[in-house]
Design brief:
Blueprint (H helix, E strand, L loop, with lengths): L1 H23 L6 H22 L8 H29 L9 E5 L3 E2 L2 E2 L1 H16 L4 E5 L10 H11 L7 E4 L5 H15 L5 H4 L3 E7 L3 H11 L3 E7 L6 H18 L3
Parallel strand pairs: 1-4, 1-6, 4-5, 6-7
Antiparallel strand pairs: 2-3
Helix pairs in contact: 1-2, 3-9, 6-8
């Protein structure tokens, strides 16, 4: 018990330190690391108490069983989901897509954030290698953004040699689900002879940071996209662990809401 409590205290301290670093950088959803640290400290403290006071208070057997089952189910769910997230991260983009949908991310005034910049690098690379593919740049204007994310992407890609006639802007969405829904409408409107249903049967690639691909594909398939593929861009390696853990909770939330 002493060894185990020491391991738990060490893990809790690492989790707390990671939380402080993320909070200092104003990374969203970093509170999960503080919660994790609290759980590890409480667990370690209980084991330390039991090692020092064998005849003292102990958690009832029935409660231990329930907590053990919950922990086992949580670990299984997390492991399976993370495996699927990693599979999405390592997927190879499909050749000769009809369209790319570049999913929006934060814009700092008029400049793409690191996450958006990495998505744009990947989109630019694909569009240069596949001259027949067009792109929908999807993202509205959020807090702290002086222009819409789609406009920011449009400026970046045209400045990097992508002809403007290959780019379509969708400037209303604020979530991934809206990205997909509104982008389908933009594509249909750009080809007046077809319906949204026809567009959903086109070969479409979703460009996003690697950890986000799995959930984005599930959302697209739920909406009705029939030939949708992931085009994973890199993500900030310093925040990769946080993003992957956060994505598990995002997938869980989407499942509970029925979005996927």
């Amino acid at each position: 018990r002493k060894i185990m409590s020491g391991i738990l205290f060490a893990a809790g301290s690492i989790s707390l330190l990671y939380f402080l670093i993320l909070a200092w950088k104003h990374v969203d959803f970093c509170i999960i690391w503080l919660f994790g640290a609290a759980v590890l400290y409480v667990w370690g403290g209980y084991l330390r108490y039991r090692s020092l006071h064998p005849d003292g208070f102990s958690v009832p057997v029935w409660m231990s069983v329930i907590l053990g089952v919950v922990l086992a189910v949580g670990i299984l769910s997390f492991s399976v989901t993370e495996g699927k997230i990693i599979h999405g991260m390592t997927s190879e983009p499909e050749e000769e897509l009809d369209y790319l949908i570049v999913l929006g991310a934060q814009v700092k005034k008029t400049v793409p954030s690191k996450a958006l910049g990495l998505r744009l690098q990947k989109a630019c690379e694909y569009l240069k290698e596949h001259s027949q593919t067009k792109a929908v740049l999807s993202g509205g204007q959020g807090s702290g953004e002086e222009i819409a994310e789609a406009e920011c992407m449009y400026r970046y890609l045209t400045e990097h040699g992508i002809p403007e006639e290959r780019l379509l802007k969708e400037e209303c969405s604020t979530t991934t689900r809206e990205n997909l829904m509104y982008s389908a409408r933009v594509l249909a409107d750009s080809r007046q002879e077809v319906t949204t249903e026809t567009v959903l049967g086109s070969k479409i690639g979703l460009v996003s940071n690697n950890f986000h691909i799995y959930r984005a594909l599930l959302l697209a398939e739920k909406f009705g996209y029939r030939k949708v593929y992931g085009v994973p861009a890199a993500s900030d390696w310093k925040l990769q662990i946080h993003y992957m853990v956060r994505e598990y909770f995002a997938v869980l939330k989407a499942k509970i809401r029925g979005d996927i």
